Amino acid sequence: MKVYPVTGSPPSVEISLCLNSRHRGVGCIRCLATCPTSAIRLPVGRPQIEQWSCVACGACVQSCPTGALESSGRTPEAALLRALADRPSGVLGVACVQAPSDTTLPIEVLGRSSRCLAALSISDQLTLTLAGDDVWLDDTHCSSCAIGAAVQPIHRTAGAANAFLASTETGVRICLGSSTTDHTSRPPEVIDSKRLSRRALFSAVKRSVADAGDVDMMIDGDAGAKLVHRIPRRRRALWHTLARFKARRPVDVTGLPFADVLVDVEACSACGLCATFCPTDALIFHSTDDSFTLSFRPSTCLDCGICLVACPDGAVSYGSDLPPGSLFSQVRWLVAEGTMAPCRVCGTATALLTEPEPLCSVCRDSAGVVRPLFDGAGLLDDLFGQSQK
Q: Is the pLDDT reported for residue 280 higher than 90?
């Protein structure tokens, strides 16, 4: 039997942050689908981790868009980044605790993490490229690993990181060991994440202090909200990392944890449910008796899909490209605006579309206007008469 070493404690779970707790129709199963040991259950849609099956690989933490699952304590990935902060120059490779030490990848420096590479976030992978060299992820042994299924999230994260790098002028990329036939016989210099040099420690502290003021964003529109809005800790780390790059071209966000929210104003009924259920403040809805606006901030969008589910009008869709600066700034733009008028049934203010007397989404999707029954053919009278015989 293949055994994978447990490298830490199972992640903590905050049920209130789960998308399924926010909207019962979302049906999110990302953590369940990502777990390589089937240690996660979703009774009533809420994640539960079976402690005896979890190997603390960190894959589920990276898959959760809202931060409902978080690693406990200081992570091995943070230790790896600190250990590699002042590494020698040259092409870097990163391997997990299970990878053989005699790698033949075309690298000059090898960083060893104490757990699965699926725990590396997009921010982690991008940070490793800041030295100006390609970074190789050693996935060559994943097919023989006890949790080999984790190779899929490793590849997804690398693809997302490369999608952002393509918008920059760096010319570097995240490379997968399984995708090359280029090998070398020269052993690389190995840096163990568990051994942190004194120089690397001071450099890491200096950088964390310098970066603390780079990007800071507050939640908009939380006063009086029925559902709490929260920005996950990992999103804040991603802001800091993205701000260190000079992106020149629009970013294809298809694989990134962002979305370009589009709204069909000819279908939007101005119910505001998309903004109500949004777990952050990416969507903000404002309305008066006469008008409404719906604004969007890409930097706080988690690409969770809840606005698609919550919209009763089918008015929400996603684009694929965003301006690079919008991913880590406070820029916000209008995605919908219009005139409001009372619903002709219940009187609730709703968008004035093509009808002079509009229906709100609730009345439209229910029975609508109830009219007196007119039985011109006398069928009911006939049926009633037959029942009396």
A: yes
